Amino acid sequence: TLLGFLVTDAPISSGALQSILKYSVDRSFNCISVDGDMSTNDTIAALANGEAGGPEINESSGESYNKIRDEFTQFAQSLAQLVVRDGEGATKFVTIKVQNAESFKDAQKVAKTISNSPLVKTALYGKDANWGRILCAIGYSDVPVNTEKTNVSFIPTDGSADLKLLVNGEPQQIDETRASEILEFEDLEIHVDLGTNGDGEASFWTCDLSHEYVTINGDYRS
Amino acid sequence: SSFSQLSNKYSKYVPTEGIYPKGYLVGSVSTGVKKNNQLDLSIIKSINPANAAAVFTTNKFKAAPVQVSKKILDQGNKINSIVINSGCANAVTGANGLKDAQEIVKTVDQTIGSTDVASTICMSTGVIGQPLQMNKILPQIPKLINENLGESHESWVSCAKGIMTTDTFPKLISRSININGNTYTIAGLSKGAGMICPNMA
Fold first, then answer.
1. A156 close to A92: Cβ distance less than 8 angstroms
2. For chain A, where are the alpha helices, taking DSSP H only?
3. pLDDT value at residue A207
4. Are B167 and A90 in contact (CB under 8 A)?
5. In sequence order, what are the residues at sequence separation of 6 or more whose Cβ sits closer than 8 angstroms to the Cβ of residue B103?
6. Which residue of B has its CA nearest to A2?
7. Number of Cβ pairs < 8 A linking chain A and chain B
8. Is A14 close to B23, i.e. CB distance below 8 A?
9. What is the pLDDT of residue B6?
């Protein structure tokens, strides 16, 4: 189960707080996956008691509203990412970034499908640069994809050059040593360019699937 | 190796200090629902009624606390407290589960002296399909509110620990922001390690 609480002393009106929370959760907690299962109890709640003073921030407050909404969103992303980092048995923290989808929703759907694929997640655990499984997940995501313009890369988190796995639908000669180096890091980014004419973009955060996950969940009730 | 990994995560992601929003008292207590006297009941209390918002699971089997809290928020009430128990999800527990969630809300409201309308929302996390051990939880609510709440960093960490289930570290962050010359502070707690692929609305 996911539970989260965002509390502030800012004077945010009730309506603005609800719209800020929805906006930020759609870009944070609704973009994480550990194991693909949705709980009966997931809840994110926010409180704003106004104790810091200042003018009330409501949906008509223009720049103030946008600024606090964006701060909430970044904040919620940081909090959501901690959940993924602590995923049961997780040894890897993986950012899936999908670009050039026809819409944000399409990009999110592809990112979510990759994030939930048990075969992608076990490959990540095994440090196997198995881009074929990533492609497979993209292919059954049920969104428009230009297969001849699709690109997939691993982006190392140390700032070194990315590793292109698929360029314009063509598999690349992969330097397995380099791939292993990148997969040794705890953090990894996978970039997917769907090559459509749209500019839909979304990020999703996931982790690997390890033996430990099965151990933890094999006897949770007892 | 496994212990070392857990220890690394704790030291890497749990802050040793923080700056927290004004007007909140937080903390937790052990009720005995979780084994080995682990913290399992937390409260976030605002000293004045706060505006509140929430998004909830879209799972068709919504747990009792989800149903009760949604109803309270739908009434447009200002909120004084959020109470969270861990170890038992109070999910798929039927009419008795709803009664238990309402009883917890009522007990918190009575303890803080807010009796006109429900001003507490409740949440639960843990095992599905088991009733809450109300005999353990209810007596600890006054103790938690009267003795265990504070505004220190340690209180916030304790509050975050009280909502953990299979989590290996408490998740807590805080930050100050400046908007048009006014400084505001946000604090956030979360929990979750498994059964995680939310789609809340």
1. no
2. 14-26, 63-85, 104-116, 118-125, 131-139, 176-184, 211-217
3. 98
4. no
5. B134, B138
6. B192
7. 266
8. no
9. 64
CB interface of A with B, residues 24-63, below 8 Å: 25, 29-30, 32-55, 57, 63
Residues 105 through 124 of chain B touching chain A, CB cutoff 8 Å: 121, 123-124
Distance from CA of A119 to the nearest CA of B (A): 17
If you compute the radius of gyration of chain A from its CA atoms, what whole number of angstroms results? 19
B37: which DSSP letter? Answer: G
pLDDT of residue A1: 97
**Which residue reads 């919620």 in tokens?**
A76
Asked if B23 and A22 come within 8 Å (Cβ–Cβ), the reply is no
Q: What is the DSSP letter of B35?
A: G
Report chain B residues whose CB lies below 8 A from the CB of A76.
188
The partner residue sitting opposite B179, judged by closest CB among A34, A67, A78, is A67
Q: What is the average pLDDT across B167-189?
A: 97
Decide: A5 and B190 in contact? Cβ < 8 Å.
Answer: yes
Answer yes or no: do B189 and A212 touch at CB < 8 A.
no
B181 touches B155 (CB < 8 A): no
pLDDT of residue A151 exceeding 70, the answer is: yes
- Shortest Cα distance, chain B CAs vs residue A168, angstroms: 31
Compute the C-alpha angle B56/B24/A50, nearest 5°. 80
Taking contacts as CB-CB distances below 8 angstroms, the residues of chain B near A41 are: 57, 63, 65-66, 89, 91, 123-125
Angstrom distances, CA of residue A102 to CA of A13, A143, A195, B138: 35, 8, 9, 52
pLDDT band of residue B114 (cuts 50, 70, 90) is confident
Evaluate if residue B168 carries a pLDDT over 80. yes
Residue A119 tokens, joined = 């075969």
Residue pLDDT, tens place only, B3-17: 666 678 999 999 999
- Return d(Cα A35, Cα A68) in angstroms, integer: 31
pLDDT of residue B30: 98
> Are residues B125 and A3 in contact, defined by beta-carbon separation less than 8 angstroms?
yes
**Is the pLDDT reported for residue A165 higher than 90?**
yes
Say which residue the tokens 């609305």 belong to: B201
Token pair, residue A78, equals: 């940081």
Rounded to whole angstroms, how far apart are CA atoms B56 and A34? Answer: 18
**Separation between Cα atoms, residue A1 and residue B57, nearest integer Å:** 10
